[in-house]
Amino acid sequence: MLFRNGLIENATEGVDIRVLDGKFAAIAPNLEPLPGEEIIDCTGKLILPPFIESHIHLDTCLTAGQPSWNMSGTLFEGIERWEERKQFLTKEDVRSRVKKVLHMQVANGIQHVRTHVDINDPKFTALEAILELREEVKSFINIQIVAFPQYGILSYPKGRELLEEALKMGADAVGAIPHFEFTREYSVESLNICFELAQKYGKLIDVHCDEIDDEASRGLETLAARAYETGMRDMVTASHTTAMHSYNNAYVNRLMRLLKMSGINFVANPCVNVHLGGRVDNYPKRRAMTRVKELVAEGINVSFGNDDIFDPWNPMGNAGMRDAVFMGLYVGHMLGYEEIMKSYKFVTYNAARTLHLGDAYGIKEGNSASFVIMDAKNYYEVLKDNATVLASYKDGKLIARTEPAKTQVFVPGE
Ligand code: 17E
Ligand code: FE2
Predict the structure, then answer these.
(1) To pair with 189 at 20 to 30 A between CA atoms, which of 135, 163, 351, 371?
(2) Ligand 1 pocket: which of 101, 146, 151, 307 to mutate (most atoms <8 Å of CB)?
(3) Residue 339: what pLDDT?
(4) Cβ neighbours of residue 260 under 8 Å, at least 6 residues apart?
């Protein structure tokens, strides 16, 4: 197959891409078509590596309002509403909701997903369902599972045992929730356990870290210190870190040195962070997104996720990555021309680093031919016009296609 004249990653000159045996066989201008080769015209169309959802809770998706709605819009009421819904979990229920979301993600050009799964459940209903699905869907989407202790490791009965069991069952990464533990001591100790288990079982780490508007919530410094001391470094991810929004600048100046030394990754979830955050404020109300612009300026890896799709923590969500970037740039004061142009990296390359996808990810000769074709000439247009993901190819195979909508306007004049 020959993809003709596409604009790879905001390039202004088109190039041709030859896909053979599921791989990028050649990438160069004006390739001669082989006899009988199928040709797909990509003139004026942006080509990107596939999108990556680096932070989502698949187990909770599509449950908003069941049985009741989160009326306060807080993280904590979300956890209460989820607890009610959790009572009705069956494997079939989880499977059918997760499959629906995976199909929505595929339609939106996503090919890699890191999902947190609540393992504070002695029956492991959601974990079992998603472990099975991880295998079943791997030809079209790559799922990474974080064992997520929603109520804590030390503040929930047998929290540590449940976490360890989830890792033995096959979770890819260890989670923690230091800001939800009963005490600061538990918070620090929960992170120590998280590292101990990650090292024992050879897993990655992704912590729900300081997801609270409390400037005294300082799980991050412990997480970064342990990442540095253990040498786990970029195997470690700090998700949310919304408290960092509220830290004083003198503290952040000191902290930043450690963050850089640690090599850890960050994930912000702009829509949900803004929705859940600032809820204890009158005016002014905090935006509650972590300091993305400053982290990026220090060369620290940051990606954007959706966190939730139509569940107790987010009444909205369409499973695409565009809205996360859109909101992230607005809230983070990152709408300069160059910032907009390169912002696709928050949901492609930066997320690939967090997920440890390695060199196999990206558009280059020899790699698996996985990419998306956008109905826009560059990423600025994608964001501005909410451009359609025209096609998603995985390992050279078409896995999703969308026709752009056509609108006609009937007005007098012209
Ligand atoms: N649980 C949690 O603690 N934080 C979140 N953002 C979600 C679930 C979605
Ligand atoms: Fe989350």
Answers:
(1) 351
(2) 307
(3) 98
(4) 298, 299, 300
